[in-house]
Specification:
It comes from Plantibacter flavus. It contains 11 helices and 9 strands. By secondary structure, it is an alpha/beta fold. A 9-stranded parallel beta sheet has the order 1-9-8-7-6-5-4-3-2.
Length: 266
């Protein structure tokens, strides 16, 4: 068993219903290293929105596949923890392209997990037809098998983000993606305890959600049986907000912020 294989197995095992994996999203080498050194952190996840934005690019195809893999390699190479990469839609228009790009990501970057979206464009709607979206998940699994790594696939369901009333379709997609080879379903739109509980009951596998101010609290998500929580571009927003506040205070000749002395080294 290779080190990469072992990390993939470990990452999968960390998705435990009721004791969710908390992944604070990162976007480059230094954020990966700093987060990896925080007490209790056991795995990392990138956020494509942040990876693109810090390069002055839009999310949703701002990077091409070569750039996305290069960015992933920088993040993975900065730490010893398992890293899962937000791989957007696989940077390919068809399933065959998804398969090859996922294989490349694994081999060239060392990643052991991915997020895979089911929306067609940068917005959350429209989505690929359910059969096509499931085929793309299956292609990602085939790409992982080609690379010889049990990649952890977190398949995103964007349905409720586009139409909050389309519950049955969202659940059908979630189960189709699991049947196609996903390990976890990244279910967007679960904004209440009731919706989280319904998803846990109706989806035949593990559930991943996004956390944000006003969402179901982390401890309650654990009690409900969620397996993973991430924060997407919110962690970049958190960082930028702190920087802006500090810049405002310094410009006004205020006190030096204590965090100005934060020690870091790549």
């Amino acid at each position: 068993m290779t080190d990469q294989h072992a990390k993939a197995v470990l990452l999968n095992s960390l998705h435990e219903p009721g004791s969710p994996l908390i992944v604070t999203n990162v976007w480059d080498a230094i954020t990966a290293k700093v987060v990896s050194e925080a007490p209790g952190v056991v795995a990392l996840a990138s956020a494509s929105h942040s990876v693109s934005n810090v390069r002055g690019l839009e999310d949703g195809g701002g990077l091409d596949v070569d750039e996305a893999i290069a960015a992933a390699k920088i993040i993975v190479g900065a730490v010893d923890l398992p890293v899962t990469i937000d791989f957007e839609k696989g940077y390919a228009s068809d399933a065959a392209g998804v398969r090859e790009n996922v294989r490349r990501l694994i081999v060239e970057s060392g990643a052991v997990g991915i997020n895979l979206e089911d929306s067609v464009g940068a917005a959350k709607a429209p989505q690929f037809p359910i059969e096509e979206a499931a085929a793309r998940v299956a292609a990602a699994r085939a790409g992982a098998e080609d690379a010889g790594i049990p990649l952890v696939i977190n398949a995103r369901v964007d349905t409720l983000a586009g139409d909050p009333e389309a519950w049955d379709e969202a659940v059908a997609r979630a189960n189709a993606y699991l049947e196609a080879g996903a390990d976890v379903v990244f279910f967007l739109g679960l904004g209440t305890e009731e919706l989280v509980a319904e998803a846990i009951e109706q989806v035949h596998g593990r559930i991943s959600v996004i956390g944000y101010p006003g969402a179901v609290p982390l401890k309650r998500l654990a009690e409900l049986g969620v397996s993973r929580v991430s924060f997407g571009p919110g962690t970049l927003g958190l960082t930028l907000a702190a920087l802006q506040r500090a810049a405002t205070g310094l410009t006004e000749l205020g006190e030096y912020p204590e965090d100005l002395g934060f020690s870091f080294e790549l």
